[in-house]
Structures are given as structure tokens and as C-alpha cells.
Structure to design on (109 residues):
């Protein structure tokens, strides 16, 4: 799986995903820190990447009829990076299975 990590999330998350064997890049690594939501969404979709974000605006984009983009929507509120990684590690098998079975939007609370 390939991921594009949104700017409000830590770069550590992209490194964590790469450590799990995923192709992951953070928006800041791409120089896209100031990019608008539509450009970010189009980039992720064009590259076949799952966008990882906390931003509800991307959920709205993902639910448009016919939109092929994929979203890992983190809904756990503000938390420390280690707490975020611990939660993802706990839920990773479910997340990975959901995407491999064709789910386009996976929500983590």
C-alpha cells in the first residue's frame, strides 16, 4: 500500500508506515505544505496513494459520487505522536484488511 500523509500529521507517521513496508511520503517531503485540499486529493489519487489525514474536508471529497480516491481518516483528536502510532499499530491488521478488500474509506477513532 502507498500513503500520502497530510501536513497536520507528524513526519514520524510516514516513517512508521515505511517501516511497515508501505510506500509513504509526507506532504512536507513533497514541498506541498501549502497545497490546497483539492490538489492534495488529486495528487494522492493520481499516484494511487491512500491519503492519511484528520481533516474532515477530505472525507467530503472522498464521498463524492464516482470519486476513486482512498482515505485513512484519523478521528482520534489531538494526541501525542506515540499515542497515534500505538493506536495505529493496534488497529493495523484491520486497516490493512479493509483496504485490501476494496474499502475506500477507513476511519480510526
Amino acid at each position: 500500500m502507498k500513503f500520502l500523509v497530510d501536513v497536520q500529521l507528524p513526519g514520524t507517521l510516514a516513517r512508521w508506515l515505511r517501516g511497515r513496508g508501505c510506500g509513504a511520503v509526507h506532504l512536507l517531503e513533497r514541498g506541498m505544505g501549502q497545497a490546497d485540499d483539492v490538489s492534495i486529493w488529486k495528487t494522492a489519487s493520481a499516484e494511487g496513494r491512500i491519503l492519511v489525514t484528520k481533516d474532515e474536508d477530505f472525507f467530503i471529497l472522498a464521498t463524492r459520487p464516482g470519486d476513486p480516491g482512498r482515505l485513512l481518516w484519523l478521528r482520534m483528536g489531538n494526541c501525542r505522536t506515540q499515542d497515534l502510532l500505538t493506536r495505529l499499530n493496534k488497529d493495523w491488521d484491520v486497516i490493512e484488511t479493509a483496504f485490501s478488500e476494496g474499502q475506500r474509506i477507513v476511519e480510526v477513532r
Q: What stands out?
A: Residues 81-100 form the longest helix (20 residues). The chain has a mean pLDDT of 97.
